[in-house]
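We give the chain.
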Amino acid sequence: MEKIFSVIIPTFNRAEILLKTLDSLRKQTFPKDQFEVIIVDDGSTDDTAIRIQKYIQDHKSLNLKYFKQKNAGQGLARNLGISKSSGKIIVFIGDDIIMDEVFLSEHWKTHQEHKSGNAAVLGKIEWHKDLQISPFMSWLTNGSSVFGKFGGHQFAFEKLEGKKEADFNFFYTSNISLKREMLEDKDDQFDPNFGAYGWEDIELGYRLHKQYGLKIFYNPKAIGYHYHYLDEKSLKNRMFAIGKSAHIIDAKHPELKKVPGLWKKTIFVILGSLPSLVLIWLANKMLKNKFIAFWYYALSKRYFIKGVRRGSCPKTTASNICPE
């Protein structure tokens, strides 16, 4: 029997949280015989395989399939999941997303309202209530915290308040579903050149927008809760990876201008310089965290520019002589 949904979850060394994700899928109000769950293990070195195999045995009511590949990144893991799926609609979520019980029902409701082949549904992501939300986490998911326009790089749902549609920049694979017909051609799947974090989601969204006129409809009732505590220690690696991989998307789509030009790069360099950071830090301390969002923004640009510089080096260049 053909399924309506194929829920694809790439995972890497997150067995404990992944089980919570699967538990939330078992609690869905949507009929269990109408969806399948496909886990693609991206080369985990923990006990993910053992625990998932046991979960499959213990919870046979959930149509769950498990595949493992060599560590190659989330994009290729999702592509493998697509090839193993059979549902009419592909749902992408993260391995640290705990879904509200009406999650799939709300995705289905919006797809019923928009039946065209180029329709996608974007749900909302919120931090899980069991987490203690740090100032960094609040900044990370607010794209308008600085001057009402700039902010964190992970999500920017506040920009969609009161809106029913979103553009390709909101192709968030933590909570999005789309008709499988847009993904059946391998050329319309995730680009394998994005081995590290950053841009592969938006790049695919942009390609689907150009190829099929992708339309993303926003349903804030399709909620996924992000169960992943983050602090500012993670900022360096995340922004460095985004800066480095900006060259990949820029080579494919220079019109998007993801690698900053001279003026923007100069502003970022000045903003992320040590003297600027010291001044912002002192101002934030004196004014009791009034500048905390600006502090994180400036710090993120420092690491982003380091990644951009590293990404501009030829692959044959040794990392110890490549500028940052």
The CA atoms of residues 225 and 321 lie 42 Å apart.
